[in-house]
Write a structure and sequence with these properties.
Blueprint: H1 20-28, H2 38-48, H3 51-54, H4 59-81, E1 85-87, E2 91-95, H5 103-113, E3 118-122, E4 126-131, E5 142-144, E6 147-151, H6 157-165, H7 179-188, H8 197-203, H9 206-211, H10 217-232
Parallel strand pairs: 2-3
Antiparallel strand pairs: 1-2, 3-4, 4-6, 5-6
Helix pairs in contact: 1-4, 2-4
Length: about 240
């Protein structure tokens, strides 16, 4: 059994991006939406007088669109910054700590990008796994939306790898690819004469580094080194 789909904007764009319904689903995923009545109020107003939300001028509308943008932005950045570790069982693993309910959106993207692989995300307490492959199943795990979920403390990475080996007819030999490969690529893109530390920090903020755990460790280290060098510079060095 592979990935199951469910009706939502996350399912291959069933809802047009930037449409009102698209923002409604994104805003529903916001962490604050689980604790307050904003979405219920927006839904009620949309039935009575949609213009109040559509014109984006009221406080309710502004809060609604702000939440939607925050969720969309988080998905965009997580997809861009996640770094996977490759295992022989066609397994791609990453630590990730999203603020909002976006795990299924991330799986939709990565399962389509890597259709022959199994994607595994670990948070502090949970494990989430998904794949487009029809020959992989995890009947002991709870299936939710388009992925399986399990308690991290009861199923280690080694357990998951063993379960996959029982289902796979062949495995990879990924020893040629390691973290050094990514570091080499990163260094090859570095142009000393065009470095912009302020822009780099804006694009790669500390908050995002924490969300993808160790995936950006090398980039963060290099950025810290450049900032320290910059702090040591004097005005005379610019002339």
């Amino acid at each position: 059994m592979g990935v199951k789909s469910y009706v939502s904007c996350s399912d291959n764009g069933n809802l047009e991006k930037n449409s009102l319904n698209y923002f409604l689903e994104m805003a529903q995923r916001h962490r604050k939406s689980k604790r307050d009545s904003l979405i219920a109020r927006v839904t009620r107003v949309l039935k009575e007088n949609p213009a109040i939300i559509q014109n984006k001028m009221t406080k309710l509308a502004q809060q609604f669109y702000s939440r939607g943008r925050e969720v969309i932005g988080e998905v965009h950045r997580l997809i861009a910054f996640i770094r996977f570790e490759l295992y022989p069982e066609y397994l791609l693993v990453s630590e990730v700590y999203p603020e909002h309910d976006v795990i299924d959106l991330m799986f939709n993207f990565f399962c389509k990008r890597y259709p022959t692989f199994i994607i595994l995300f670990f948070t502090k307490k949970q494990g989430y796994i998904a794949t487009n492959r029809s020959d992989i199943d995890f009947p002991a795990f709870k299936f939710k939306q388009n992925y399986w979920v399990f308690k991290r403390n009861s199923n280690s990475l080694d357990n998951i790898r063993q379960l996959l080996r029982l289902q796979l007819s062949a495995i990879l030999t990924p020893e040629k690819f390691s973290s050094k490969t990514w570091e080499c690529y990163y260094d090859s893109q570095y142009i000393k004469s065009r470095k912009n530390i302020r822009l780099a920090r804006k694009v790669l903020p500390e908050k995002m580094i924490r969300k993808v755990a160790g995936g950006l460790a090398y980039e963060a280290q290099r950025l810290d080194e450049e900032e320290k060098k910059q702090q040591k510079c004097t005005l005379l060095e610019f002339f």
